[in-house]
Here is the input.
Amino acid sequence: MSSSLLRSAARATVVVAGVGALTRGGALAAAAHVSVTPDTTAAGSYALLTFGVPHGCDGSATTKVAIKIPTQVNAVTPTVNPNWDVQKVMVPLDPAVTDSHGNQITERVDQVVYTARTPLPDGYRDAFVLSLKVPDVAGQTLSFPTIQTCEVGETAWIEPTVEGQDEPDHPAPAFAVTAAAAGADDDHGAATTTSATTAAAAGGGATAAPTSTAEVATAAASSDSSTPSWVAIAGLVAGVLGLAVGGVALARSRRA
Here is the structure.
């Protein structure tokens, strides 16, 4: 191979390596953020949001993580993490609102704060899971600004990510709300299925099993009227045998 071809190959290798390094660097930077991963983004659904904390603050161990809840969300249920104490910080609602069960809600969860029982060393990851109902705001982005406090210093993951612009150095955990799932139940976010429908589907279109006391009684009566019981069959057999015995006795008496 000529020297010019060798130089061209070397330059191409450097370019490819540089692109690969930039790509890996971007992926690592994204992975290094405090992030949120929802198990569903559908409006009106109940979701589990997993917040990942992958490192400390410039090498310092993490002691506290405070997650700000969007104003569209009133109620949050934090999952207990055995390595952390958890607290819900409440603020008043003015005006108060009425939930789907008719209960008046006068306050909402403003923050969920996890405090480490033992500081989380830099280079180790932990996760926090929150349960909440995704508000009916399809097309909007829900942002959860998060303050990570460490033994030395803190990192504020609060910067908004703007479409069409470079990602900020410390983006707030966020996700976009999608359209509501078809047939979702208002209370639990799951499709409603009746027992009769389930039974028919399981039986490949067979008649559904009775689902009430009245239906059970009707089914029993129908069964009794359409199928003779063993008692009736036994009585019928006994009657036939009796007629046969009587006929034989009558024939004998006539010959005598």
The domain at 32-176 is CATH 2.60.40.2230 (Immunoglobulin-like).
